[in-house]
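User: I've been trying to design a sequence by hand for this structure and keep getting stuck. Would you show me what you'd pick, starting by listing the structure so we're on the same page?

Assistant: Good idea, let's start from the same input. This is the structure you sent:
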């Protein structure tokens, strides 16, 4: 008799319930209130929900809308440059080594080291509520490596026989790129773009830490940490996770619509 596996949504729901239960137990036991100020490093879920409604949706949306805008602009710039350079490498193969070195450098340099330099060169926001140039740059900086690596690997995964057919019929390297390589690389490119969503958001938040911006996730997170307002810190943390997960999931759905064969379901059917 075949055992019926739980649907994915049920597994996810069980995981969320277990995490909340563990969080609640730790908040009441090992990380409960301490000191004369009754300070609790880990608030309980009801305390976090209370802080969310006490502050109000408008308070958080005002900051998150700015950070999401910064992450979105940086996401487009970083991924756009990575995709264009990866395509140029296939037409000019001798540039591959240079591009790989640049990508590795962007991955190895800590953002905390380059952030102050970027702030001095580009500055922050022009006016309260405007996107920070530093946050946009660091969002683009954070996605460049993964997109370059994923795109190059995907473009090189094209079937050699198909490439030879294009060559025999007089096609150029650009024709190979357009007709064969892009189709073969699409699943890898979409996966890289999906991974880049939370990376861009994290880069934007870190960019706001370096100052010259009054509105954003970074400033309210710093303010909550300085005042030891742990419920608000946890609200911001959970909202950041939700934003990243939503962006990641949306790109996953888009990827399945654009390249359904990448999931393997079409092949099995």
């Amino acid at each position: 008799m075949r055992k019926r596996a739980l649907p994915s949504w049920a597994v996810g729901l069980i995981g969320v319930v277990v995490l909340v239960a563990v969080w609640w137990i730790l908040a009441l036991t090992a990380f409960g209130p301490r000191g004369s100020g009754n300070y609790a490093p880990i608030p309980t879920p009801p305390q976090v929900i209370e802080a969310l409604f006490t502050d109000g949706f408008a308070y958080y949306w005002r900051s998150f809308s700015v950070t999401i805008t910064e992450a979105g602009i940086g996401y487009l710039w970083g991924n756009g440059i990575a995709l264009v350079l990866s395509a140029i490498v296939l037409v000019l193969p001798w540039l591959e080594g240079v591009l790989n070195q640049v990508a590795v450098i962007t991955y190895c340099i800590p953002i905390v080291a380059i952030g102050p330099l970027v702030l001095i060169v580009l500055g922050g926001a022009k006016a309260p509520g405007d996107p920070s140039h530093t946050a946009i740059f660091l969002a683009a900086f954070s996605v460049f490596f993964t997109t370059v690596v994923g795109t190059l690997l995907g473009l090189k995964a094209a079937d050699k026989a198909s490439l030879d057919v294009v060559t025999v019929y007089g096609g150029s390297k650009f024709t190979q790129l357009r007709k064969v390589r892009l189709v073969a690389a699409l699943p890898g490119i979409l996966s890289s773009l999906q991974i880049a969503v939370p990376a861009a958001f994290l880069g934007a938040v870190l960019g706001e830490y370096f100052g010259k911006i009054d509105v954003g996730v970074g400033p309210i997170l710093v303010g909550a940490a300085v005042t030891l307002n742990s419920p608000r810190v946890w609200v911001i943390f959970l909202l950041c996770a939700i934003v990243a997960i939503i962006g990641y999931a949306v790109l996953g759905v888009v990827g399945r619509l654009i390249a359904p064969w990448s999931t393997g379901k079409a092949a099995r059917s």
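That's my pick for every position. To get oriented when you compare it with your attempt: The mean pLDDT is 82. The chain has eleven helices and no strands.
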